[in-house]
Amino acid sequence: MKELYHPSLFPLAEGINSEDYVIATYLVAGGAQADLVAKSAALAIEQSSGSWFAVPGETEEVRARSSAKIIGIYSVPNYELIAQLPKDQPRYFILRCAFPWINFYDNIPLMLSSVIGNISSMPNLKLVDLEFPASFLKQFKGPKFGIEGLRKLMNIPKRPIVNNMIKPCTGITPAEGAELFYNAAVGGTDWIKDDELIAGSPAFSPLEERVKAYMAAARRADQEKGEMTLYTVNITDEIVRLKDNAYRAIEAGANAIMVNVFGVGYSGLRLLAEDPQINVPICVHTCYGGAQTVAPNQGMSTEVAQKLIRLCGGDMSLNVAPSAKFNALKEKFVRTWQVGYSKMHHIKQTFTHIGGGVTPGMVPYLMENLGSDIIIGVGAGIHGHPQGPKAGAIAFRQSIDAVMNGIDITEAAQKQPELAGALKTWGVYGVDDYDKLYDIES
Q1: Where does the record place the Ribulose bisphosphate carboxylase large subunit C-terminal domain (predicted)?
Q2: CATH architecture observed for domain 146-425
Q3: Cβ–Cβ under 8 Å, residues 347 and 176
Q4: Can you give 270-337 as a three-state secondary structure string?
C-alpha cells in the first residue's frame, strides 16, 4: 500500500473524537494531474508529526498521537472521470484537516505555526476556516465586555454606536486633537478613537498628555450632550511596552484602549484582554491584516482572523465597509460580522466596527443588512462635513434615527440641515454614484 494512502491518515470525520481536534479548512490548487490524496496527506504530515521524507523517529505511536488527519478532500468542480479533468489549468479542491490540539494546547503562535506554518509558502493554498471544539475554547476568556457589556457601559440599549477616528491621522498635538475630539463628541459621537497611525507615546503626542487632554474634552462634551463618550487610546507599541502603556493610559483616565492587532499579534491582544488590571474595553484595529487575508489563493481568510480576534479578547473589531475605498465583497463583509456575532460557546460576542469611507448616506444600507448591533466607524465623514465635525456627528445621528423610525433619509434631510449637507456632499449609497467618492483606480 502506498504510504500516503494509509487509512490512518484519512479517518472519517465520524471516526475521530472531535473534542481532541482543531479542524482547518483550506482552499488548495494543484496541477491538472495532481494526486490530491497524496498531496493532502503530505500537507498534513508536514504540519504535524513528520516531514517531506520519512524519518525513523516518526513511529506509529507518535503518528497516532500527533499527526494531523485528513477528514475531507473535495474537488471543485467535483470531477468523477479522467476525461473531465482540465488540461491547461489548475485543479482546485477543499481540504479539511484535523489537528490534535494537544500539539499546541492554548499556544496561539504554535497553533498558527501548525495550521498555516511552512505550507503558507506554498503557492495556491489559503486557510479559509478554523473550527474549535468546546474543550479547546475553555482555555480562553475572550472579550471582557462584548456587545452586551459595551451597550450597558455606554447606556445605548438598541441603536448602532457611532464611532469617529480623529483626522488628521497623525502629527497633531494633544491640544489640537482634543479640540477635534470635543467637536465630534458634542455632536453625538458615542466613541472616539485614535487613528491607527498614532499610537503609544510619540514625541509630538505623549501618551498621558493625550489621554488627559482627550478625556477632558470628553467630559466637557458629555456635560453638554448628556451622554457618555468612550475614548480608545491607541497603545500599540513594542510588546515589552504594551502592558505598561495600558496601565499608564488607564491611570491617566482612559475609559478604553485600542491595539493594532496584526502589528502586535493575537497573543499581544490576549495579553491585554486576560489581564485583570486592564478592566476597560479593547478596540481592535485590523490595519496590515490585508497582507494576510486579501490574496484570493494565499494566506488566511478574514473570517479566520476575526475568529482569532474574538478568541483572544477583542471587544470591538474593525470590518471594512463594502465601499470603493476598500471595495470589500458583500459576502465577506457579512460573514465577518457573523463570525463576531454568532454563538461561540462561552466566548462573548465581538462588536463589529464598520469603517472605511462611511458617510451618513451609507447608514440605511448597513442597517438594512446587519441590523442595529453594529458600530458605524467614521473619519472624514465627520471631520470633512461642510459645516464642521459637530454637524458631521449630528448628521450620523439623524441618519440613524431616521432608519430606526422607518423614515427615508432623503425625506428626513428636508428638515435637518446637517443631514442634508452630508447627502449633498457624498450622496446615498446604492442610489448616487457613491463609489466614485473613493475611486483611486482611475
Answers
A1: 146-426
A2: Alpha-Beta Barrel (3.20)
A3: no
A4: HHHHCCCCCCCCEEEECCCCHHHHCCCCEEECHHHHHHHHHHCCCCEEEEECCCCCCCCCHHHHHHHH
Antiparallel, parallel or unpaired: β 256-260 and 282-285:
parallel
Q: Which residues pair with 162 in a beta bridge?
A: 376
Tens digit of each residue's pLDDT (9 = 90 or more) over 21-61: 999 999 999 888 888 898 888 888 888 765 444 554 455 66
Helix (H, G, I), strand (E, B) or coil at 9: helix
Running DSSP on this structure, what letter comes out for residue 139? T
List, in order, residues 6 or more apart from 424 with CB less than 8 Å away.
386
Q: 39, 144, 167, 385: which one is catalytic? A: 167
- To the query of whether residue 285 is one of the catalytic residues in this protein, the response is yes
167 carries an active-site annotation: yes
Long-range contacts of 54-59 (CB under 8 A, 24+ apart): 54/3
Q: Report yes or no: 189 and 393 within 8 Å, Cβ to Cβ.
A: yes
Return the minimum-mean-pLDDT range out of 43-57, 179-193, 335-349, 417-431.
Answer: 43-57
Q: Which residues neighbour 404 within 8 Å (Cβ) at sequence distance 6 or greater? A: 158, 159, 367, 372
Domain spans, the chain:
3-137, 146-425
Cβ(306)–Cβ(339) below 8 Å: yes
Q: Which of 39, 193, 285, 383 is catalytic?
A: 285
Q: Tens of pLDDT along 89-146? A: 899 999 999 999 999 999 999 999 999 999 899 899 999 999 999 999 999 999 999 9
Q: Measured in whole angstroms, how far is the alpha carbon of residue 344 from the centre of its chain? A: 16
| Rounded CA separation 319/233 (Å) | 19
Which CATH class name applies to 3-137?
alpha beta
Q: Which amino acid is at 274?
A: E
